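Subject: Re: docking follow-up (guanosine-5'-triphosphate)

Dear J.,

Thanks for your patience while I sorted out the input files. As discussed at Tuesday's group meeting, I've set up the holo structure prediction with guanosine-5'-triphosphate included as the bound ligand rather than trying to dock it afterwards. The sequence and the ligand SMILES I used are pasted below, so you can double-check that they match what you have on your end before we go further.
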Amino acid sequence: MTLLVRQLTASGRGAVAVLNVSGSSPSEVSNTLARYFTAVNRLPLPDLPTHRILYGTWETEGTREDVIVVRNGAAEWEVCCHGGVAAIDRIRQCLTDLDIQSHEEQSDSLDDLLLQCPTVRTAEYILAHRRGLNTELAELTDRISTDELRLRLQRMLSFRRFATHLVKPWTVAIAGCPNAGKSSLLNAIIGYDRSIVFAQPGTTRDRVEASTVIDGWPYLLLDTAGVRDAADDQIESKGVSIAESTFASSDAALLVVDSTLGLQDVDSELLSSNADGRPLAIVWNKTDLVGSKPPPDIGFPAVQVSATQKSGVADLLEWLAAATVGTPPPLTELLPISDTLARAAQQFLDQQIDLGQLKTALLT
Ligand SMILES: Nc1nc2c(ncn2[C@@H]2O[C@H](COP(=O)(O)OP(=O)(O)OP(=O)(O)O)[C@@H](O)[C@H]2O)c(=O)[nH]1
Ligand SMILES: [Mg+2]
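The structure tokens for the complex came back this morning:
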């Protein structure tokens, strides 16, 4: 049998979480839940009528979690548990560890996208679409010419990057030489000590990630191992290669340079590897040690900061938001908000689907 598990509440921590569990066979779904769930009144799950709510416990080896279980349909249930990440993960794991074909449903309906929105600002765009932006164009398709429709779809697709990052954070690599102050910069941006800072080069070995919100937009900052040619040991070398690939694949990059030492050969190599014009700024760090002398012009945007004094960080974040999000579209702009919609628009432009199929995608 196939078991589908979907989280109906937003990802991350909350007061409560709701998981929707469904499958093809009513008895198999209820028997599966009954392996872990025991109702306080001992009612057996398979006999439960729909819309009946049961309070009980979800038990796994050594752990017991208070939950509420509701039967929504013959083979569809809801499990409501505490909203902490551990409780949700435990219940999910029970259902996905079973010796049956079970998976989490991937959906890009507007409701599901709304649940994935990490900030209020990004949610506003999804809500605007949910209130009818997509359907407006679907209704217009009968009244405008094909040329006009093609222009509108092309305009919509030009916002693909922006739309993707309404639910997915912009990734930002923090790279540079060992000891340049990359981890200090990460900590200064997020406001707490996420990454270890130490006066010895080679402190950060693995990639350290931290989520943050800048101006209402979601970002994932990626602190990496200092890049140097002769890394001390195998673990450090591995860290360097992770740093290089993180630097190459992120949406934007910050190259941190120690202002007391100036640009090093490895910095120049990293700069020349940024061939695709992706947003990249040189962050001249440790300005508290060199005064306010302007940095040399190397042809890339430059920001002077002192990570330990937290000066210049606001300017850096302003640059980052402008270089990634840029000027955000108005809330009235139709965006390729879901993969389904973006794919359908492109397929219509490529004449692979007809107007009827495009309309269906717009109305989804
Ligand atoms: N004076 C001064 N010292 C700084 C500044 N930023 C970092 N440092 C110091 O520089 C040293 C290295 O800082 P880290 O943040 O660990 O440097 P890193 O680039 O992450 O180093 P690796 O992880 O080894 O690659 C520490 O002693 C920091 O306190 C700064 O703005 N001013
Ligand atoms: Mg570090």
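A couple of observations from a first look. Residues 170-324 form a domain with the Rossmann fold fold (CATH 3.40.50.300). The longest strand covers residues 63-73.

Let me know if you'd like me to rerun anything.

Best regards,
T.
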